[in-house]
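Progress against Task 2.4 (sequence-to-structure conversion) is shown through the following example record, which the project officer requested during the mid-term review.
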Amino acid sequence: MAGLKNPTRTTRDRSAGLVRPGLTTIQLPVVEFDVRPVYDFLMSACNDCGELEDLLPEDRGWLQEGRAAVLAEVGGTESARACIGFGGEIGRLLVVRPEVKTARQVVAAVDELSDAELLECLFGELIDSPEVSDFARRALNGDGEAYAALGDQLKHWKGHAVMPETLAELAPGTRRALHGWLPRFERVEDRVGRMLTRDVAGRHADDAVANPLGFVEKATNGIRMVPDQRTRRIVLAPSYFGRPYNSLTKVGEITLVCYPIADSALGAGGRSTPPVATVRLYRALGDESRLRILRLLAERDLYLTELATALDLSKPTVSHHLAQLRSAGLVTMTEQGNLTYYTLRRDRAAEAGPELSAFLAR
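Structure tokens generated for the chain above:
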């Protein structure tokens, strides 16, 4: 459900975050790690949260088979698929529940909630979104027309159905999906936990104190956050099953960032195995639309809406392309309040070779 922003503002000036000296000073947020496999439990069940190509070969078939089996168990319908997708929103609950450390404890914590409390959690991002908060609140209060309008808006943004047919299906459907996925995830939970620990151990945590926002940008491979007085803590949660994407969730004064673990955290590979970062780079460049995006960004920074208009593509399609480019290190995403814009990383583009550099310089 992340990525609901629908910015329409257009401008050549992307320098916001600067403040007039002497007027105000925004305190930088505290950055900390959350090395629990609980977020991977939620993301691994969801088809939209990661890419199979970024997982170890032994996990790809297992993941596909497990997801298909759970979908069949909970009904096999589009409504059931939507309920599974909403499970990721439970991360909003976990970020303020540090005592919940395992997938089994996640399921127990969800079972303790009433349906109304669970729906409030699942609708959290929708309620916080200025564009649909009114529809979301009315839908939770039983307004069928608001629920239908909310579903239509999300389908327009995402390019596919997001909501189950009725609100009454959402809470029980999410519970069934979590119970069905639990025994499957527990087979890999310890191994995933070791990967997350290796990732954090390989990072210079002291940098998070000296340069917190720069540390976040490096960990996320390109998300640049503008200082914001509404964000006091940034919680970095390493993720295996979310690779190569980042997922941002705001809960009060906390921003939870589930970021993809580094290739080095996966474990040793054979000498004949190409580095995942190299595969990711050339995969990102092997698409005409993504090359056109880079060419546009070579001229100036752009919002998602501007890119979609220039390319005559839907915003969900462009968003997917941008995620691929960002995971390859070619694009930086800057968050500024409710707006997000994209910047070409010229140093990384230059590393990709002279042919790309010549194309971007046209």
